[in-house]
Amino acid sequence: MSILIRHRVLWDHLRSALWVMPTLSVMFFLVAGMVLSHVPIGDDSPIRWLVFQGTPEDARQMLIVVSSTMITVTGLVFALTIIALQIASGQYSPRLLRNFMRDRGTQFVLSVFVGAFAYSTAGLHTVGVQNPDVAAFMPRLAVSGSLGLALASLGVLIYFIHHLSSSIQIDTIMSMIVRETLEVIDDLYPDQTGYPESEERCPDSPAWAVTLPTDRSGYIQEVAPEALVQVATRNDLVIRFVKSVGHHVVAGTPIACVWHRSADHLQSEPGLDEAIRDSVQVGFERTMLQDVPFGIRRLVDIGNRALSSAINDPYTATQAVHHLSEVLCVLARRRLDDRLYRDDYGTVRVAIPFPNFADYLQLGTGQIRRFGAKEPAVARSLIQLLKNVCSSTASEDRRMAAARHIRLVLEEAKREITQPADIENLLADENEALSMLEAGRPQTAHGSTHDWTL
Fold first, then answer.
1. Chain-centre distance of CA 41, in angstroms?
2. What confidence score (pLDDT) does residue 311 get?
3. What's the sign of the alpha-carbon dihedral 169, 175, 179, 180?
């Protein structure tokens, strides 16, 4: 695996691990306690009256109280965090657990509590220790630090209760998903607005192309094809991925195909398998490193779960559509090319397929349209989403695709809604939207060869 992929994947994993920041906190507070215990506070010191005034035995008792309190509160915080994870996974989507685990507020609170516990417990090892020749050891500044941490932990606990109650609110969760998704969009499609020319797509594989299998099963999390470009350039090859970021692959099945630009060469070159391993990160779960569809998928999951008979919360589904509108309107303004990597002479050496706008639109509206067909409010919010998409793009193809989905929303609603008044309102919304579009009847487009609905 390349150093770039290894660094990005490791950083993403560490951000999602609850143990990293608390571990660093324990190490920091242990070092801080060791340093402070060697700072003498004499009777003539200007901070003499600000530090702990008790005896060594008083100090030990205080450290015992602080350490026992901190471990109790830490257990409470862990319990509340687990409850929040259960609520999020059961009511909204199991794919949100990763977001809660990487929440900086929760990690900070846990770090303060375990750090205070480690600091106070380590102080018991030295405070008040005596032998016949040495007076009782009394690091007043270090003991005062334990008392300060205990008081600070009270404020942190109040913050945590507020933060936890805020973080499980559906608006906060969806706003967080939108923010992460927009960051990935900016990374993949930077400064590509107002495109005048057609988007670049992967070249078709010739008949003499050879498939390259993957040696691992899982989800493609990231592709950094620098090593593949070097191998392809050196051997005059073209490599086209048949799977992209977010797709699931099975060991031994094709992940890419390769061919010489000349049909006379039918054999694959050595080193390609190793280059594939260096360029592609395959993991057991999907991540947001390069996976825009995964961000949309999570919003769709929230909408679908809200529309289920177990929850029956159409308003939450409508909110999910509103947040999907933010993402799809940004995508409507971007140039959504496939990833084409060229050599120094401009020849395409590595091609990676990415979703086009029609794929994103289908992913963002298809399932909610079907599951929410019985609820007029959800259908009307989908029509409004598609109107917003149309007003965000100057591309006729994208406007036609939105018009097609508006008609699909109405067709689904007509089959499920029995109240004529609700149908009339939807018809009025459809007519208004199509009039605004000023677009003709869309032509049937060829579907994508990739499954972007996963």
1. 49
2. 86
3. positive
Q: Tokens for 439?
A: 């677009």
Quick one: average pLDDT of 109-118? 92
Beta strands in 232-379 (DSSP E): 237-241, 248-249, 254-260, 280-283, 339-342, 348-352
CATH 3.90.1170.30 assigned to 210-281: yes
The 10s digit of each residue's pLDDT in 289-331 is 899 999 999 999 999 999 988 888 999 999 999 999 999 999 9
Angstrom CA distances, 83 to 34, 78, 108, 299, stand at: 36, 9, 18, 21
Amino acid at site 330: V
- Percentage helix, strand, coil, to 5, in the chain? 60, 10, 35
Please check whether residue 408 is in contact with residue 358, taking contact to mean a CB–CB distance below 8 angstroms: no
Residue 75 parent element (H or E): helix 56-87
The per-residue pLDDT for range 260-295, each reduced to its tens digit, is: 877 666 555 667 888 888 889 898 888 888 999 999
From residue 372, how far is each of 73, 94, 106, 321, 385 by CA, in Å?
Answer: 43, 21, 35, 11, 14
What residues does CATH 3.90.1170.30 cover in the chain?
A: 210-281
Sign of the four-CA dihedral 42, 47, 48, 52: negative
Amino acid identity at 420: P
